[in-house]
Design goal:
The protein is of the alpha/beta class. Helices cover 37% and strands 22% of the residues. The longest helix has 24 residues, at 163-186. Bound molecules: glycinamide ribonucleotide. Glycinamide ribonucleotide (GAR) is lined by residues 8, 10-14, 42, 87-88, 108-110, 135, 171, 174.
Length: 195
């Protein structure tokens, strides 16, 4: 059975959907949910779903990303994941970390990549006058929010949208897209799923 570890930083709503889909479908096993923040709400939810958790606070390491990642790596390697999913994990990973999971690390990003890598994606889409927004699941490479696209889902941008209302509309699609893409990925499918 494919073993999946998930990295989060916050509420973990995408993580919950991934775990639920794996537990219901039996096509993979969630073996770890890890966070850079011990207060991340998703850690409690993961534990309630019976998934092992770990928290490594990034703050003591300051700008030394590699030192933080060395600590983060310990519970990950212990869990022996085949696939690593970033789900609202808000730390930039070094190339050294990414390379260890090359071809088996996924991320969900709240924009239609290659548009709007980085932060504030929804406000940027509104400011640009875009009529469409969405989310992307992609393979992680050393370049931020780059890497082969595995799936995208689109939503309309409406005239009265704020970043918050648009984010909420996109999040509904994230919850559908990410489990669907992960299931396909585990089955060896690399063609992009366009929704
Ligand atoms: C999601 O919208 C995800 O796409 C975004 O953070 C949110 C996490 O929500 N990720 C990024 O912005 C990554 N750069 P969640 O914790 O409820 O899944």
């Amino acid at each position: 059975m494919t073993r999946v570890a998930i990295l989060i930083s916050g509420g973990g709503s995408n993580m919950v959907r991934l775990v639920e889909a794996m537990q219901a479908g039996g096509w993979a096993q969630p073996v770890l949910v890890a966070s850079n923040d011990a207060q991340a709400g998703g850690l409690v939810k993961a534990a309630q779903m019976g998934v092992a958790t770990a928290a490594i606070d990034h703050r003591p390491y300051g700008r030394d990303r590699a030192a933080f990642e060395a600590q983060l790596l310990t519970p990950i390697l212990d869990a022996k994941p085949d696939v690593l999913c970033l789900a609202g994990f808000m730390r930039v990973l070094t190339p050294g970390f990414v390379e260890q999971f090359e071809g088996r690390m996924l991320n969900i990003h709240p924009s239609l990549l290659p548009k709007y890598p980085g932060l504030h994606t929804h406000q940027r889409a509104i400011d640009a006058g875009d009529t469409e927004a969405g989310c992307t699941v992609h393979e992680v490479t050393p370049i931020l929010d780059d890497g082969p696209i595995l799936g995208q889902a689109r939503v309309p941008v409406i005239a009265s949208d704020t970043a918050a209302t648009l984010a909420a509309r996109v999040l509904v699609q994230e919850h559908r897209l990410y489990p669907a893409v992960l299931e396909r990925f585990v089955a060896g499918e690399r063609a992009a799923l366009m929704q």
